[in-house]
Amino acid sequence: MITVAWRAAWPWLTGLVRRHWIFASALGAAVVPRLVAMIGFQPAVLFRLDTYDYLWGAVHVSPNVVNPSGYSLFLWLLRPFHSIVLVVALQHVLGLGIATWVYALVRRYGLPDWGAALAAAPVLFDPAQILVEQFVMADVLAMALMVGAFGILLLRRPPAMWQVVTAGLMTGASVTVRPTTLPLVLLIPLFLLLRRVGWRKAGASLLAGVIPVAGYAGWFAAVHGPVNMTDSNGMFLWSRTMSFANCAVIRPPTDLRALCPSAQPGHLAQPDPARRLRPKRYLWNHRTWQWRHEHSGFVPDTAAFTQANNDRALRFAIAAIAAQPFSYAGVVATETIEPFVTTNNLRFPTVQPHSSGLGRADRRYAVAAITGYTGNDQGVAGDLGYAAAPSSSWCCRSPSTSTPTGTCCPRCRWPASRPQWRSASPARRPPRPDCPPWAAARPAGPLSRRRSGAARWSA
Question: What is the pTM of this model?
Fold first, then answer.
């Protein structure tokens, strides 16, 4: 049956390639750098803690307090395959699909084949795009949902009801992946009203877009309390106000004065806004106000992102914007223009990112996230500071309850004089004496570095 269907489709496929040979050639050429990226960076390019947050969220399904967990749900669907390589391979396919959709859409609106191929070329060949596809990050999935929504909406004029509903659902789903797409939930119905397709279709698109967002917010409320997408929106907005905030103008109440730029530690307390560091330095510096009550649980970087801190930061940010609206508008305009006038600094690293910027708690969390998702360390534990012999005793626990999760890190001590444990098969090994019974699990493969300075590691 499959053979018959393939034989019937082959003439159509070859005819399609002949008619669009310019784009087909570009699409085939774009596969090559993606294969090189997959071979050169295995299992993926691991991007700080965000990657491990998403992997951890796929193993322990729960709404994350820093970033929405839509991408973690995507990873959860792929978890039965226990492969990060499969994840990035699918993301490369999504990237090629985005380019194909762009080509098809602009061709439908009258652009010649060479012009349409040129429009799709940035997605096909931009090194930054290929790098983003090689990340275990949410950006490509959000991009695919956005472009897919636009393509379906513009496929025919005027759009049918199924098109506006599908586009609304896809934009709503993209918000649960990357919340920066939230304005599209409102902009698409506005576009439909401007095109005079009718209030029913505009309303259907709005409702379809709201449903995924409301569903996720309800899930977040059930787990964490507030009806929100994260506990980080106020924190991120506060960090952005550090680019211009002047507390002499804002005059915050007493309980918000600790959030002023001048109250931040060390070189962050720069009085001149033009000489201040980038906003992320204020957000992630663990000496600033939001980190003064360090969390003792297993998942790092959650101490600051509480409902109380988020509400407090949001109050300061709103007060700063209200007191200095033109300064805020200037910062927004400057940072909106910046990507169009500066060189892109998103480049492939020369080696796999190492553990120099990660603390011990972050490193153990990173290894546990990869191990929990794939069943082994995927050969990157050495990059994260775990090529050496175990030296301490701890195991992974739930971030909220501090109870064992079943995913355990291979760090519990066992005396060297007990060779019978080391020689036994993993399935028959008893727990080590200084670990609880549930701590017997360990990664499937030994940790070994291939060669000094190499970017690849063997599991």
Answer: 0.80
